[in-house]
Write a structure and sequence with these properties.
15 helices; binds manganese (II) ion; binds 6-deoxy-beta-L-fructofuranose; globular; alpha/beta
């Protein structure tokens, strides 16, 4: 289903007058409102190919309908999101789930949908049909050299797919680890994994990045061989300048101070970027900003402070991606909400009076520092995010458009009751 700009333009007309009134108010009320809107209008978040179908857990999956049954369908769904919010202009593929059959055709489809290909993701956390050696006891860490080599070859194959798509990075998330004390020699597992990553690193094109994604637990429940930011940074530093640490918000132990981790990784020039989602307990992969919106703002606050301190380009120097799963919601509605939450957090971070905050910090004026952050977070910036969408020719109210135009019903009509498997 392709949305044409006129449909969206026509839909916006109903809300335009009230939006204009609000924008005329806020552009004078909020400092730097115009500059913030210009930054928002350039900002894009990549959408994961595996989050366009209904997800589930080991206890069950309640599939939805009209879900994508092919890579082309998945790209159309991301194109639909991008047409609605003007901020989802990239898709991240997972190999082997999304191996294109015709690269030429896929490139043309991406161009027709204004989509780019973000980081590609390898998969050595599942055994594929006909795969000679199993990853049951790990992949790059495995005690058996042949299993490690099989996993290395897969990652190099993923890089080759990515090169043909125009991607510039590979994300390596390893489910490797152990479930019981004594099962694994941590030092050997680390050294096997490092040696294997070095072979993958050696295959990187010169303008590519390797993102090392860490995770505290699941599917291993005693140790993970890339279990936290310290371990990931150890690998990234030992690998070289093209290796970075990727922060998936759901991959931390409860109450971890993610904004401090982000600040230090940025300081070291080793932050890859993000897999945005939210969680209350584990790797719940819930809608971004749905559980801890203030933490999301605090993370973006460190991002803007750290990126500006290093003169980084907000849109291109870090990987911005969602990594979520939808067990009870329409995947496209959930992703629209997630991108909105990210844009609001970024807008709040841009609005933060950094000079006043630095002064308060230099004076150890804790209350003043708190008031600056909390007043910023309590400022309604939704009109600025909507104004950015309007300037990108997108919908003033994407979710309302999606519902009132019955987009899901249209997808069901086009695709029938196809039930894709989200993660
Ligand atoms: C692991 C993870 C990783 C992806 C997978 C789909 O939990 O976050 O980024 O490969 O989800
Ligand atoms: Mn992830």
């Amino acid at each position: 289903m392709i949305l044409d700009k006129n449909q969206i333009h026509h839909f916006n007309e109903k809300a335009l007058a009230s939006h204009q009134a609000k924008w005329n108010y806020y552009k004078n009320e909020i400092p730097n409102a115009e500059a913030i809107v210009q930054n928002l209008a350039k900002f894009n978040v990549a959408i994961p190919s595996w989050a366009l179908g209904t997800g589930g857990t080991r206890f069950g999956r309640f599939s939805g309908s009209g879900e994508p049954a092919s890579l082309e369908d998945k790209m159309e769904d991301v194109g639909l999101l991008h047409a609605l919010n003007g901020a989802s202009g990239a898709i991240s593929l997972h190999i082997p789930w999304d191996i294109p059959s015709d690269y030429e055709a896929i490139q043309q489809k991406a161009a027709s949908l204004n989509l780019k290909f973000d980081a590609v993701n390898s998969n050595t956390f599942q055994d594929q049909p006909g795969q000679p050696l199993s990853y049951k006891f790990g992949s790059l860490q495995h005690v058996n050299t042949a299993v490690r080599q099989q996993a290395i070859d897969h990652n190099i194959e993923v890089i080759n797919h990515g090169v043909k798509l125009g991607s510039k990075a590979i994300t390596v998330w390893l489910s490797d680890g152990s479930c019981f004390p004594g099962q694994l020699n941590f030092r050997k597992a680390f050294q096997n994994t490092l040696e294997s990553l070095q072979a993958i690193y050696a295959a990187l094109p010169s303008d590519w990045k390797l993102f090392v994604e860490y995770k505290a637990f699941e599917p291993n429940f005693y140790s993970m061989t890339v279990g936290d930011w310290g371990q990931s940074l150890l690998y990234a530093n030992k690998l070289g300048p093209q290796a970075y640490t990727l922060v998936d918000l759901g991959h931390h132990l409860p109450n971890a101070n993610i904004e401090q981790i982000v600040s230090l990784l940025l300081m070291e020039g080793k932050l890859a970027g993000f897999h945005f989602n939210d969680s209350k307990y584990g790797d719940d992969d819930l809608t971004v900003g749905s559980i801890k919106p203030y933490q999301l703002y605090l993370i973006f606050n460190e991002l803007v402070e750290g990126m500006d301190a290093r003169g980084m380009d907000h849109n291109h120097d870090l990987g911005w991606m969602i990594d979520a799963s939808h067990n009870v919601k329409d995947p496209l509605e959930d992703l629209l909400q997630s991108v909105e939450a990210i844009m609001l957090a970024y807008a709040h971070a841009l609005l933060t009076d950094r000079a006043a905050l630095n002064t308060a910090q230099d004076n150890n004026d804790v209350v003043a520092a708190q008031e600056i952050l909390q007043n910023t977070f309590r400022t309604d910036v939704r009109t600025l995010v909507a104004e950015a969408r309007l300037r990108n020719g997108a919908a003033l109210q994407p979710l309302q458009f999606y519902r009132q135009q019955q987009v899901r019903q249209q997808l069901i009509k086009d695709r029938g009751n196809s039930k894709a498997s989200g993660l």
